[in-house]
Amino acid sequence: xxxxxxxxxxxxxxxxxxxxxxxxxxxxxxxxxxxxxxxxxxxxxxxxxxxxxxxxxxxxxxxxxxxxxxxxxxxxxxxxxxxxxxxxxxxxxxxxxxxxxxxxxxxxxxxxxxxxxxxxxxxxxxxxxxxxxxxxxxxxxxxxxxxxxxxxxxxxxxxxxxxxxxxxxxxxxxxxxxxxxxxxxxxxxxxxxxxxxxxxxxxxxxxxxxxxxxxxxxxxxxxxxxxxxxxxxxxxxxxxxxxxxxxxxxxxxxxxxxxxxxxxxxxxxxxxxxxxxxxxxxxxxxxxxxxxxxxxxxxxxxxxxxxxxxxxxxxxxxxxxxxxxxxxxxxxxxxxxxxxxxxxxxxxxxxxxxxxxxxxxxxxxxxxxxxxxxxxxxxxxxxxxxxxxxxx
Length: 392
Ligand code: ADP
Ligand code: MG
Description:
Elements: E1 16-20, E2 27-28, E3 31-32, H1 36-50, E4 54-58, H2 75-85, E5 90-91, H3 98-105, E6 112-114, H4 122-126, H5 129-136, E7 141-144, E8 166-168, H6 170-184, E9 190-194, H7 203-212, E10 215-218, H8 220-229, H9 244-256, E11 260-262, E12 267-270, E13 279-282, E14 292-296, H10 298-309, E15 313-317, H11 330-341, E16 345-349, H12 351-359, E17 368-369, H13 374-381, H14 386-389
Helix pairs in contact: 1-2, 7-9, 7-13, 8-9, 10-11
Magnesium ion is lined by residues 350-352, 373.
């Protein structure tokens, strides 16, 4: 496993610390609609405040692409963070410069402030070393707690580490530990489940789980591409034509390896992608005309549930159907319930899957919910994540 020095082992009292957090939260007007990500950073923030550190938090929000955007300022986040901490959080409209330095210098032990959306700055996503130097200038230490952006080499996730000592925050460390379990010491049988829209996002992770897992269950839009590669026509269903060859290669890989790969044996289909639209359950060979696949079918859910019942560990990314449009969340829901009923240690990741599990009210049935989407996939794939590799 990747091992990082804990912030609990270093002297932080009186130190000026820049913390990269992932406060990329959904907003509704000027309020935070879902504060899960803010809550996830609280252990690190509280620990450092109680230890007498002086903190400046920095995050991105949305995709302003290097230009300030009034709707993407972090003021609503400062307000919500203040409510969660039980004290007001001062927010600056800047990220670097003399005013930031003065504000940081005026902090006393155990005080904090929040900087502006770092993606208002052109140097951020370019990982511009001059910008990273300016960012680091007011501080003694850097702590990265933003696992969700750790796969990006940006100035505030990786670049700053060239100028001040960089450490993993408590959330970052927890993510590394939990996501490493399936790689280093998996409960057996290890069952991996992959869904979501596209194979193209997930080829590396399919391949990796074919090596690691005992059984790989595939659903969602990406299952269509595999079924199409096996020769089924699937009517008007979404699939990726340009990925048929990679899907065929992965199917060949599956034949050679000891991992069992299961694709849906029946599917929920509809003609219109809207709530309440009439649907049917068909086997893959029966899907034609203008039918669109929108979920795994009940036989598939039972098949998957049987595999999960015997599992020692389940890891899962991507919903198994178009969960946003009821009742096409049922396949995903059946599989979460199977996890809840079983004895397996379970780890899930991916923005949409996590949203699906939360909207079903079943989040407490999962052993660990990763805050990462792309970062979780890259971690499982075995790639080096720049926001992690720069940490001590
Ligand atoms: P995650 O964020 O969990 O990694 P993805 O972003 O890869 O998941 O995919 C989520 C999207 O996949 C959802 O918007 C969902 O509607 C879509 N999806 C799932 N099943 C299908 C399907 N059969 N056809 C089309 N889209 C699907
Ligand atoms: Mg997604």
